[in-house]
Structures
1.
Amino acid sequence: MRKQARLPQMTVGILGGGQLARMTVEAANRLGIKIAVLENQEDSSAGQIAAFEIVGHWSDLTALESLIAISDVITLENEFVDYQVLQRLEATGLPVYPSALTLRLIQDKAVQKQTLGTYGLPVPAFATVNTPVEIEAFGEKYGWPVILKARRNGYDGKGNWKLDDPADIEAGLKALDKGLGSLMVEAFVPFVKELAVMVVRRPSGEIAAYPVVETVQRDHICHTVQAPAGVSAEIAEVALTMAHSAVEAVEGVGVFGVELFLTGEGIVLINELAPRPHNSGHYTIEACPSSQFDNLLRAVLDLPLGETGLIAPAAMVNLLGQHQRSGGPDGLEKALAVRGASLHLYAKAESRPGRKMGHVTALAPGGTSDEALKIARQAADLLEY
Amino acid sequence: MRKQARLPQMTVGILGGGQLARMTVEAANRLGIKIAVLENQEDSSAGQIAAFEIVGHWSDLTALESLIAISDVITLENEFVDYQVLQRLEATGLPVYPSALTLRLIQDKAVQKQTLGTYGLPVPAFATVNTPVEIEAFGEKYGWPVILKARRNGYDGKGNWKLDDPADIEAGLKALDKGLGSLMVEAFVPFVKELAVMVVRRPSGEIAAYPVVETVQRDHICHTVQAPAGVSAEIAEVALTMAHSAVEAVEGVGVFGVELFLTGEGIVLINELAPRPHNSGHYTIEACPSSQFDNLLRAVLDLPLGETGLIAPAAMVNLLGQHQRSGGPDGLEKALAVRGASLHLYAKAESRPGRKMGHVTALAPGGTSDEALKIARQAADLLEY
């Protein structure tokens, strides 16, 4: 099926056409690889620049068939694609990475935590819950607050609800608005830092990881990333080892974002695993010889992985929508004038409060990631979407 | 005419669809800028990935009109476009950078040298020649060998002929195969190094330069580039100042490659000026916060120029065609396995001996450009087109 190492003829199909697929197109262009995206709406962020744009939902068989017809391998840019869709794709004989198995082990967060726990990896205490009584029992056992979570389809804080005490249970259940059986509850981890590691893995098992980074969320959305993380070499080593193991635990092939908590006692726990390029890895475009997008392509095409070391301390700041409106950002000329800031604008037709519209990266050769953050933030603060 | 700083709606038209336009598309994607290319053949290197692909020659009025209709500004990727075509474009009111004036001062190499000389810049001795007798007289005056050159349309050594003594004149004239009146002759400069500087300049006159680099030609084609050049700070300063002045001399707007000779006596001379992204600036994609392609877009859209400093010592090696054939390169898997090498494949349908098919860049953070060159060369040597 594969055209051996003749990249200019290869097409990688992506389920989804958002900014992660867009940045994958950018990486693909350098290697002469073509990208086909499947996305609900025309002129999606990635659809605008991909070689092939197929409009349709991933549950739409005709659209899937069009994608299959032109792709040498299929990957995805979000974990909400039902794993049964991937099974259907796999049944055609086409390589699909991450696999249906991997997605099944990840997309239900309770199954994910169970899988990681069974593999011996430390995760916060958790339980699937079907009744308010079970939530209360969990809180009594592990202490309040607890986090009530939708087991599927949550992202950027959507689908999570913090319960400070039993009195919050009713409101939490109402907020998540799911039928019983689709929820889980987790012990609240009083972390001092959130860390993340991007891991890439080939079908052969060849694996590589990017440096441990520190992420800061604002309103549950990734706000800034600093590379490397300001942690000891020992903690970084623990985080890297866990991230490797987590991807092996789900038999992952492709690129994976592993989110971790670091507690005041120096304990590292796995928070979540994303089976795709991750916001915490955008800095790799400028800061590493091979970006997470470049390595996603290499991994799914079963090509040697690229170097993941850090060229210089780096930082990234997200550009989030503030208004409901269309068009480019205000303040662009001023932001472009910030020396050393690299702007990435996703060309989405509409901005909405909290929507990811772009990001800014800066490097600080010979300096620190704090210095890089200052530059990136200066540019980001000048932009308004 | 310009849509003020609302980039996602801007389209930059490019006359030409080769690898320089292709890498400009890659830079444009990050900023949500659209590119329209005008190129003779369908599926050109840039046409494959540009938002708009117009097939036609730049002398074809219908094709030009299509380009004008969708572009906010027009630029070019080679200096062979007749300046009168640019005059016609300018007459429509559309911004055209580099301008017709700049191109007129550059595309005839005798006019270019005259312009630079008049501006007080050191260039090799030269003369326009119409007869063999004039060539011989020039050689007697400035010494042999001399370089016989086509005044227009030469590149990568095509259009240049070295005359070791008067006996070579006849063969030289035959080789260049031009009518009399289109030739010039230059003193041969016994250089010890060839240097190059990329300069970017906005309509407002804001100007910036990338570091001085050292280039090595093989068979008159750029083979390797090392940044920074291994020259003293004084010589680098002289080269930078000359490069700035050269671009100002031709009232250049856009990005310019300034090729220089360094003699054993430490004298710097200007060899040639290219009014477009330049092979000696490809390393800037990885090695500088804003690449030459990013800054080309900023310059022609009259936006603030991006930072041109070096993140780390860097080197670039060209991938030249060795065979007449179609398809991707051999040896790709091995080349991708070279840690730290960044491959750029131009996705040209056909390879030909000497044709530029791609390039490899490597950085050496905390190291030297020699170390970077070793990595880039290792990967390049594994690839065969």
2.
Amino acid sequence: MNMILLSGGSGKRLWPLSNDVRSKQFIRLFKDADGNYESMLHRVYNQIMTVNPDANVTIATSATQVSAIHNQLGEDVSICVEPCRRDTFPAIMLAAAYLHDELGAGADEAVTVCPVDPYVDNAYYEAVNRLEELVNRGTANLTLMGIEPTVPSKKYGYIIPESREPVSSVKEFKEKPDREAAKLYISRGALWNAGVFSFRLGYLMEKAHSMIDFTDYRDLYARYGTLEKISFDYAVVEKEPSIQVMRYAGEWKDVGSWNMMSEVMADRTKGNVTLDETCVNVNAVNELDIPILVMGCKDMVVAASTDGILVADKERSGQMKPYVEAIRTDVHFAEKSYGTYTVIDAQPGSLTIKNTMKAGHRMSYHFHELKDEVWTIVSGTGKTIVDGMEQTVRPGDVVTIAAGCRHMIIAETDLSLIEIQIGTELSLKDKIMCDL
Amino acid sequence: MNMILLSGGSGKRLWPLSNDVRSKQFIRLFKDADGNYESMLHRVYNQIMTVNPDANVTIATSATQVSAIHNQLGEDVSICVEPCRRDTFPAIMLAAAYLHDELGAGADEAVTVCPVDPYVDNAYYEAVNRLEELVNRGTANLTLMGIEPTVPSKKYGYIIPESREPVSSVKEFKEKPDREAAKLYISRGALWNAGVFSFRLGYLMEKAHSMIDFTDYRDLYARYGTLEKISFDYAVVEKEPSIQVMRYAGEWKDVGSWNMMSEVMADRTKGNVTLDETCVNVNAVNELDIPILVMGCKDMVVAASTDGILVADKERSGQMKPYVEAIRTDVHFAEKSYGTYTVIDAQPGSLTIKNTMKAGHRMSYHFHELKDEVWTIVSGTGKTIVDGMEQTVRPGDVVTIAAGCRHMIIAETDLSLIEIQIGTELSLKDKIMCDL
């Protein structure tokens, strides 16, 4: 089975733990079987591979997420990178072309598109696997999975089936109705649209070529920036007369708010947090290394990272978006392929950054045009290359890197370094890659 | 008038803004006439000097507070430093000896001891000034100021006067009674003990010499560590038969909890804080440079510094002490005579510190035995002296200081530097002063 896992979004719905470069699927609040923290991405990927060890999973994502995905899933995972952000139609087209032209998947093979962020159990992916059989029967061009609603929610799209059979053709779609309409739809057997679609790869390639002028994956990649921003639902699903839906009645949670996250996170608190015994229904996540003390609070979420601190009534936290958009949103934390990047001090003219690196990993060889850097190794050992000169470094060693000077570091052991950037313009974009 | 301002305490009642070296009187949450933030110390000192520009104020304090006092009140303020912590009796004795033997105050002069932390208006210090006249009449050995109670509080000591006259001799003292007893005392005209005492300097010097074997201030200073820890109330007041009390009915608040502080702080929030419009009776203070967003909260205080983050129901915050004592209490922020010291990253084997320095100020010349340091100047200009060698420094300059190497820096303009300490033992005590 071919699967395209859509890892999108730069949402702020789980701010301050999610930001422009860390989508919610990278936040580690779940736990694996060994009790280690894992992210939604990790959880979903593991569930898929547990249920179907032969699944061919390709993650469709944007360039900003590639480092975090490698950090969490390793270097071997298959990733189809959008050169810039478009909507789900271009992203799925690009991934389909990648499967077909780069990975050699056949036109008759089934492909299933899944979002990366539902909170479900393994039974969900067993159901996803059955979509392949439905596709192979050829009774419809598109096969969807619909979730049996538990409440008349206004947050989801509804699929109205022709019948209440386990698999039915689809009559129509209704986007985010009001509560009364949702009740009516549910009474008629409607299902939540979980964003899971299956189809023959050939079906989608024909669609793609009929709608976009391109020869193959590389050509599509090259012209990606010229593509219209349009969703897969709008471009394909709503126009397709031959769609069937399979009902799914198991647990399904959309972890799109702190209120929902607090229901499913592994522990009531994570990090250096003390809740006094008068706290009721409080969840707290602390990524800072300073302690948080919560006393006498009820129905609240507290979340802290170097990007900000949220203190909110759980219900109210769902209304966070305009407030977060109004406050400063410099990215102060990012997962890199080599480890983590955390801004620990920001002043006009300087940034101080703590970089942690995993043993065996390296930063890319690059230089900056407008900023000088000072690296001080504070733990571990490694090797720096500065303008071609190699040097072994250990705690206390200082490397000064003037603007224009090419540099990189390779961690021999786990390594931590404090990087001080000096300059009047300190943009993440001032980074020019070069060859060793 | 001679005044001894007792600046004691290393309390955690306003944690995380107060810590072992920053007592609550140094926190800047009030505002002066020009709208600039000021601390309790600053406010009280200004009130005293406004009401009585000729007041001879000496601040009795411990060595850990000297830098912060100079930072806030300048270098010229008179300070009597306890070489180690004893209780209020030794502290007041030392300050009295300092006035007598170092500043030349006469035995017949009146001295008034005041705490540094009441929240009052200028009328309070006008009343304090009148204590001098009462002392000069010679009708009692000790003259106290008592506050008219507004509620039968269990938090304060009560003074029971002989009569309800504006000035009355004192019948007895009652320490922190239960509510019923407090009501009874109040019905009999009792007053709260505000910790304000006046006396002839000679009276106290006689007491001191009768109870402690010493010749003069310097001798007392030298043997200070051998003195018994004992409060002034216990050692002097409770044993003195000749005491009078003056009633004071103006505003008086003991800012000893976040609940009380939130009533008197100048603004509802300070620092980078957003309260959404559904917050009710919420105060928030943010000393971090990352944003805080508070949503849907009621009757709460949020306070954040590099020492920690408090999120508490206001009433409940009064019970903070055991929780704060149980969590890590490394000092991550301190006011220094030159500016501020803020730990921005702590790892095993390293500390990263942001030092801000005011123009014209300097660090003392010193060295460390067990740690190496790397200084990177990130703003401003200054001059470093390292093992006697002078160097002008500006942003981007790096100074590496191996253990044993003497060093200091003088800020020519306002200056900011990132200091990275490397070593297996990183104690504040590893600091050996030396002469230039």
